[in-house]
Amino acid sequence: MLDYSILIDHWDVYMQGFANTLKASVLALIGSLAIGTVMAVFRIAPIRPLNWIGAAYVEFIRNIPLILIVFVFFVGLPAIGIRFDSFTAGTLGLTVYTAAFIAEVIRAGILAVPKGQMEAARSSGLTYLQAMWYIILPQAVKIVIPPMGNQFINLVKNSSVLGVIAGLDLMYFGDLISSETFVTFDVYIFVALFYLLLTIPLSLGVGALERRLAKSR
Amino acid sequence: MFKTIWKKMIGLGLVAMLSATALVGCSSETTTENKTDNKKEQAAETTLDKIKERGKLVVGVKYDLNLFGLKNPQTGEVEGFDIDIAKGLAKKILGDENKIELKEVTSKTRIPMLNNGEIDAIIATMTITEERKKEVDFSDVYFMAGQSLLVKKDSNINGIADVNKEGVTVLTAKGSTSAQNIRAKAPKATVLEFENYAEAFTALKAGQGDALTTDNALLFGMAKQDPNFRVVDETFSEEPYGIAVRKGDKELLDVINEYLKEIKANGEYDKIYEKWIGEKPKQ
How close B189 comes to chain A (CA, Å)? Predict the structure, then answer.
C-alpha cells in the first residue's frame, strides 16, 4: 500500500514542485511553439539563407541530449557573462530543445497543405507571409494536432530535467523528499501521479481539439 | 540420486564452515578477555610484538579519497595525508617508513578487517564517535574535519554567519547530511542541491551560488584543483579523525599517541598537512 503520510507531510513541497513544473511546461510550450513555427517557415521559405538557418537549428538542437542543452544555459552561458537562475535556465533549455521537434512537426504540416493553396493565395495578391499566416498555417495546424500533442506531452515529462540543475520542479523535490525519508518507491509514485495530473488532461485536450477541428475540415 | 548426495555434501561443508568460524570467534574472544582481565602482563603476544616480529606494519587506508588516500593510476602507489601519517608511524615503530603494508579499506569493511586481524590499525579518515568507541579504541585526533564552506577567493563570506542571509545561495549534494546541517544552521539562505559534489562545484564555478558546503576534507580537494576558490577557516560541525586499533591494544595505542605528539611538536605534522591540504593547520 502507498504510504500517504509522505504525501501529507510533504504536501507543501509537492505543491511547490507541481506549480513550478506546470509553470515551466506552460512557458516552454508557448516559447517552443513560437520558435518552432518560425524555424519551420524558415526551412520552407523561398530564401536560401533562411533555409540554412532553419535546417541548422533543427539538425543541431534535436541531435543533442536535452540535458546538455540545459547545461549550456545553466553553466555554459555564465562563462560569457549571461546568467540565468536554475529554473529559467532549465525552462529555456527545454524551450529551445522542444522547438526543434515542433519545427519539424509544423514543417510536415505545411508541406501537407496542397501547393495550390499557396499559389492561389499569392495570385490573390497576398504576400508570402500573409499567405502563410492566413491560408497555410491554419490548415497545417489541423493536420499536425496529433503529433503536436505528442510533443507537448513529451515536453511536460522532459521538464523533469530541471531536477538535475536544482530547478525546484517536481523531480527535484521528489529527490529531496526521497533522500530525507529514505523512501524511494512511494515518493516517486506520487511524483508520477502529479505528472499524470498534467499529461492526462493535456492528452484529452488534444484529443478533443482534434475532433472539433476534424468536423470543421 | 546424485542430487541428494550433493545436497548432503554441501550441507556438511556448510556445517563445518559454520562451526569453524564459531570456534575462531570463541577463541579470539577468550584471548581478548585474558588480555583485559589479567592485570599482570602475560606472555601473550601483543599486536606491537607481532608487528615487530613480522617486521612490517599493516595499515588499512582508503584508496579512493583525494588528498587522504588515493591510488595514483599512473604509478599504482597509494598517496595522501593518511598514507604519510601511516608511513611515519612505521618509521616510529620499526625505524623504516617502507616497512609498511597498505590494505584497502572502505567505511564498511574497516572495523571488521581490524577485528579479524587483517590489519593492525585503521588510518582512513575515520571519525571518532561514541558508537564506534564501543568497537575499537581511538588515538588522539590527528585531523579535525568538519563541514565548511568553499567560496570564491575574493568572497567576503568567512563563516556560517555570513551565509545565513536572505539572497545568499548555498550549493550542496542531494540527500547529504551537509544539506540538513546547512538548512538548520543557516535557515535564511537558499539551499540548492545537486546530483553530486562535482555538479555542485560546476554550478559554483558558473556563479550559480555563493558557496558550496560539505566536509572540509572534500572542499580542500576542490580548492586545490581550482585556485580561484578557498575554504573558509570556520567549521560548523566537528568530525575529529582518529587512528583506530583493536579494543585493548594499549601498547600500540600508546605508541601511536606518542608518535602523534612527536610529529606535532617537531613540525613533521605541519609539513604533511601543508603538503596535502595546501595550507598550514589552524590552531
Answer: 15
- Beta-ladder partners of B214: B148
Domains (range + CATH), chain A: 4-216 (1.10.3720.10)
Specify the pTM.
Answer: 0.72
C-alpha A107/C-alpha A109 separation (Å) is 5
Identify the three-state secondary structure at position A192. Answer: helix
pLDDT of B166-199, one tens digit each? 999 999 988 777 888 899 999 999 999 998 888 9
Does the distance separating the beta carbons of A180 and B174 come in below 8 Å?
A: no
Show residues of chain A in contact with B175, CB under 8 Å.
175-176, 178-180
Total domain count, chain B: 2
What tens digit of pLDDT does each residue of A40-98 get?
A: 999 999 999 999 999 999 999 999 999 999 999 999 999 898 999 999 999 999 999 99
For residue A86, give the nearest of B180, B205, B208 by CB distance: B208
Nearest to A13 by CA among A203, A198, A178: A178
B3 in any annotated domain? no
> 3-state SS of chain A: helix, strand, coil percent to 5?
85, 0, 15
What is the extent of the structural domain holding B220?
Answer: 147-231
Does residue B33 surpass a pLDDT of 80?
Answer: no
Residues of chain A in contact with residue B180, where contact means CB-CB under 8 angstroms, are 180
Please state, in angstroms and as integers, the Cα–Cα distance from residue A136 to each residue in A128, A216, B124, following that order: 10, 16, 71
For residue A151, pLDDT over 90 is answered with: yes
Cell, residue B45 = 603476544
All cell numbers assigned to A56: 541548422
Q: Which of A13, A176, A178 to probe by mutation at the B interface, max B CB count within 10 Å?
A: A176
In this structure, are B155 and B207 located in the same domain? yes
Q: Are residues B110 and B249 in the same domain?
A: yes
Angle at alpha carbon of residue A41, lines to A58 and A204, rounded to 5°? 75
Residues B157 and B199 in one domain: yes
In this structure, the answer to whether residues B124 and B68 fall within a common structural domain is yes
Q: Cβ–Cβ contacts within 10 Å for residue A192, how many? A: 12
Residue B52 lies in a domain: yes
Size of interface A-B (CB pairs under 8 A): 42
In a domain, B37, yes or no: no
